[in-house]
Records
---
Amino acid sequence: MIFPNIDPIAISIGPLAIRWYALAYIFGLLGGWFFISQLIRHPPYIMTRSQLSSFLSWAVISIIIGGRAGYVLFYNFSYYVQNPIEIFFVWQGGMSFHGGFIGIMIAIILFSRINNISLFYFSDLIASAAPIGLFFGRIANFINGELYGRTTDVPWAIVFPRGGSSPRHPSQLYEAALEGIGLYLIILLLIIFTKARRSPGLLMGVFLFGYGLSRIFIELFREPDNHIGFMIGSTTIGQWLSIPLVLAGIYFISCAKPKIEDNKIIHE
């Protein structure tokens, strides 16, 4: 299959150009905000809608700073040491999920303390919406023709412009399906058909465990960054960075227990 000729610029008005990648962040954040706004209408009542709207700006800043810092530190540190000014050139690409995750967790901790919100209940809300952002982000990666997969002869293989003449796995779409749609449906089913929301930390654990396993699996099909290559035993840095998430997910799931104050308003 030939890669579809999709212009990475979605909207262009004079000198103003809006890229699909930027729209992916916007759609992901707004989609997550809408989903959480529906959840907080039902017990346990964690926060108000105005507080959720206030956190949206925190999320934007923390994801961008954390995602960029993670890419610089985890994936291309030596280059940015020699070219420090380019750290701020985020429009050139280069964001790390693991860095963005650290960034938003710091934001969650600070915001929950300032607003006297239950940390683990709040973390569950954010984790429930995270797959929405992951889905849009991976679709944007596909449109940009980046983070493509390894060479293959499967019928749905695609020749990516940046990947040479060999057909490759569309690993971005694999990630959109597993980390995005699949993980979202699992969490949604837990919310609808179980009392998962009454066990603070459980949904966060499910997200961490599910994302970590999905990422480790999909890295088997994804082409490693050229400047990094394979790690020990043909593993990738993405797999190594995901192992702590799996372990953290197991820990949160094992420690999550129902709270007797679930039917009370935690914070108004």
---
Amino acid sequence: MINTDRDPNDGRITTRKEGAIFIITIDRPAKLNGFSAIMLDELGFAFTTMESDPEVRCGLLCAEGKNFSAGLELSAVSHYFAEGRPLFPKDDVDPVNLRGRLRSKPLVAAVKGICFTIGIELMLAADVVVAASDCRFAQLEVKRGIMANCGATVRIVERAGLGNALRYLLTGDEFGADTALRLGLVQEVVQPGNEWSRALKLAEQIATQAPLAVAATLSNARKAVFEGPEFAIAELDAVQQRLIGTSDAAEGVRSFVERRPARYTGH
């Protein structure tokens, strides 16, 4: 339950739907979109709402103003770490997709300006990332006496390799969009101001695909990363057998034969 007794300076997370796209927006531009405690609660609620809505086929994570996020407002949430408390409500879908309830629907992120600490980790938890060419990245936790604990130590290593990851995790140095692209942390770099429209276009393209096939693809790819390739390979035949019996698979064949766009229903 979100607390409605709030200080407007604490910022907010807003949501809206555009067709089958669920848009989640970080909205605290006066504080460089730094996360207050209530914003963490609202982000978990937003991801849970997206996951629960049967009409949603893809999410889009973005931010108001010039920056994606300066990270956590440590003065407001440092007690979470001291108490061993999770940043996000434990019963909600985890926005960084690591613990408890995990997201099954695809997510595209549009990042710009400053993208620090948990901003990077939220970005890395998305499935596809579009970055503005002026984006500034930094995993600053070591400079604050703590460590990244929302996925950076896993996902940057997995995508960039151990040495490349530690180069930035251990120094807290900034790096730019070109480096993020080279390291595999983002998938596309566009001119500033174009990141949102490009991310929306990709989300719309994903949303036209068969939902069951998209969910199965996401699940198998994540299994390969977190459990190992052998576990992902072991389930391939069974998953494909299940998918081929769906109405969507039959529609995929019909649309190919009839040379028309497929109309998938998720059944």
